[in-house]
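Suppose a classmate hands you a notebook page containing two proteins, each written out with its sequence and a corresponding row of structure tokens. How would you begin to make sense of it? This section walks through that situation. The first entry is reproduced here exactly as it would appear on such a page.
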Amino acid sequence: MMPTMPEFLLDHSLPALFLLSFCASTLVPLGSEWLLVLLLLEGSNPASTVAVATLGNSLGSWTTYLVGFWGGDWLTRKVLRITRQQQQRAEVWFRSFGSWSLLLAWLPLVGDPLCLVSGALKTPFLRFVLLVSCGKGLRYLTLAVLTLRGAQVLS
């Protein structure tokens, strides 16, 4: 008998979280937070779970940065599905707040375009990696702490 999707994801917990986190920050409009919460509630190691989600999501953003750095309109529009309006909004944020706006690269709708614009504007890669990874790591860490505290209160 075929396992259900949740059973499959739990059986392959960290690799599935890595892949889902990566895809969520690149090509596929998915969220990875739900799987992180599920794995934590199922007893996964919090440090490993947060680290894997952060790494996967960060690597996805690095890919988007590289598309902005080297890619063209076809990759931006067809592969990443970032509209001109999303890209223009990200450019306004980026020009207003500079590279510090990359701490918010985890936000829906504006995060991927921010990474793309950062690449197109040739932000130094090390600065990009540090800011994006810190922002995404803090998001997953906050979610993990809230999940575990909430589980303690309910038990």
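The notebook's second entry, a different protein, reads as follows.
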Amino acid sequence: MPNKTIHIIGGPTASGKSSHALALAEKHDGVIINADSMQIYDGLPTLTAQPPKQDKQACPHLLYGALHPNESCSAGNYREMVEPVIKDVLAQGKTPIIVGGSGLYIRALTDGLSPIPDIPNDIRNAANAKQAELGNPAFYEALKLRDPIMADRLHADHTARLIRAWEVLEATGQSLAEWQEMPRLAPPADWIFEVTLVMPPRETLYDRCNKRFLWMLDNGALEELEEFNQAKKNGEISEKSLLSNALGVKPLTAYLRGDLDKETAIERGQGETRRYAKRQVTWFRHQIKSNKNIANITTIT
């Protein structure tokens, strides 16, 4: 029986995941596959820290810059994209190496998901608008009338969860509670995941975040951001593009507009990156757990 081992290298931004992935790829004839929710988009390769050209020349890299910035990519979308890629890599006799810091992407792959269909953007936007119009207490009561089971599980202050229950009901005609009781869409039973979490000490990690942000600026991040913002002005890229939420976009755009001096923009971008890295560390420590498909979880510093 052919080897169905899939390596996963996760951890916070700037932790050094890529160098570990390259070493593993060299050792196991590997193909590196992206699991980062910003690097999956085309448009800001430097600012989203996509692997440089020399890394891509060293071994194949897949699902980097794979989507137009106007497309949305949920954890479910990612799972649908990555599974056939993994199957293809395994069929070639090579080793899939999943690399990234988007924990929900990784968990969707290793644990599976409830089979809830993707919610169309117009329904999602309408649910958000309804909540904003009514406010939480009235929105909660409206949900309670339509879906008493989910309302009973939620608190009126749980804004995001209330909206989620509403949009699923609107889009599917079924309660989120019903969807959650259905069998999860699990990965193939013969896939075995070897998980490595790269978690440097906090001071080391923060120093890497700061230095990498400066490296990005020295390697064209501002120029590509100017092109990105111009494409939004031209209507080629939507103002609601998820890529607009990439680390550093807002402070650097403010600098390009003349609203911030460069030093302040850099400090804010570095601060955003450090705070995000801190949240990722917490998530990976508590959310990646063994299951029947995960053989080992190793943490390295």
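A careful reader of the second entry would note: The mean pLDDT is 93.
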